[in-house]
Specification:
This protein is α/β, with parallel strands linked by helices. The chain is 29% helix and 22% strand. The chain has a nine-stranded mixed beta sheet with strand order 3-4-2-1-5-6-7-13-8, sandwiched between helices. The chain has a two-stranded antiparallel ribbon with strand order 9-12. The longest helix is centred in the middle third of the chain and has 18 residues. Manganese (II) ion (MN) binds next to β5.
Length: 293
């Protein structure tokens, strides 16, 4: 049951959706959705997200058994993973968010999911910070495994707003289910706290590294260091996710997982020959000389 979708079907073209047409009520019978997060399986944000997405298909929750913030795209390769079945279609894993997605898609789920949704993270994942984020990395893992994926984060979870963020997540998820995403592309969604003015498509903003490493002495007289202290400072820039969130818009930033910089690749074309020539000349210089006679 609930396994109509196969990999082939997921990659097949979907009917385009006109911008004016409402995107709700696109529940596809047989659609399986994988939901995960990095705040742990008992987090409020995960609960709201799973409930909201149940309107779109059969939701499987595969999430870390504890908080896994800022673990990035780490995979657990050197110890066994344990899975605790905590309810119907609900699994707690003693691993990272990426472990959960990998395990879910390649093992626990009855079939390929139509969508991976990670979140709702307690706190924003904006700009350059996406590279550290366990929430965003889980969506990256889904993308790498060929499933359309999105990450959803709520800027200020202490003031509430999970229901609104879940509604926005469902709206975007529904559109992705119908329209699909370009290859190797995931969506990073952030929702401000308080009334949301609208939804903006944005690019990633940039962090300014001003803070210094904090150096202190421990009770045994040894020096220790503390990184990432103090609030982040962001570069001003139009059309960034940072700017839009400040103006109380929810943001959708498409991210591409082909990290190759094609312009740099072209500009550095001459390096290839030069480096190869240097390598060869060094080799011939170091090679043992043959004595004649
Ligand atoms: Mn988190």
């Amino acid at each position: 049951m609930g396994c109509q979708g196969s990999l082939v079907q997921i990659q097949s073209p979907r009917p385009a959706l006109s911008p004016s047409r409402p995107t709700l009520n696109v529940k596809q019978p047989g659609s399986v959705l994988l939901v995960t997060n990095d705040d742990g399986i008992s987090a409020r944000g995960l609960q709201s997200l799973a409930e909201a997405l149940a309107e779109l298909g059969e939701v499987y929750v595969v999430a870390p058994d504890r908080e896994q913030n800022a673990v990035g795209h780490a995979l657990t390769l050197h110890r066994p993973l344990r899975v605790d079945r905590t309810g119907e279609r609900r699994f707690a894993v003693n691993g990272t968010p990426s472990d959960c997605v990998n395990l879910g898609i390649q093992g626990l789920l009855p079939c390929m999911p139509s969508l991976v949704v990670s979140g709702i993270n307690h706190g924003s994942n904006l700009g350059d910070d996406v590279t550290y984020s366990g929430t965003v990395s889980a969506a990256m893992e889904g993308t790498l495994l060929g499933v359309p994926s999105l990450a959803v984060s709520l800027a200020d979870p202490d003031t509430g707003g999970f229901d609104e963020a879940a509604r926005i997540a469902r709206l975007i998820a529904a559109r992705v289910l119908v329209e699909g995403l370009p290859p190797k592309t995931l969506l990073n969604v952030n929702v401000p706290s308080g009334p949301v003015k609208g939804i903006r498509l944005t690019r990633l903003g940039h962090r300014v590294y001003k803070e210094k490493v904090v150096e202190e002495m421990d009770p045994r007289g040894r020096t220790y260091y503390w990184i990432g202290a103090g609030p982040p400072v962001w570069e001003d820039g139009d059309a960034t996710d940072i700017a839009a969130i400040r103006q109380r818009y929810a943001t959708v930033t498409p991210l591409h997982l082909d990290l190759t910089h094609y312009e740099a690749l072209r500009r550095m074309g001459a390096w290839e020959g030069a480096l190869t020539a240097q390598l060869r000349s060094r080799r011939s210089r170091n090679a043992p000389r043959r004595r004649s006679g």
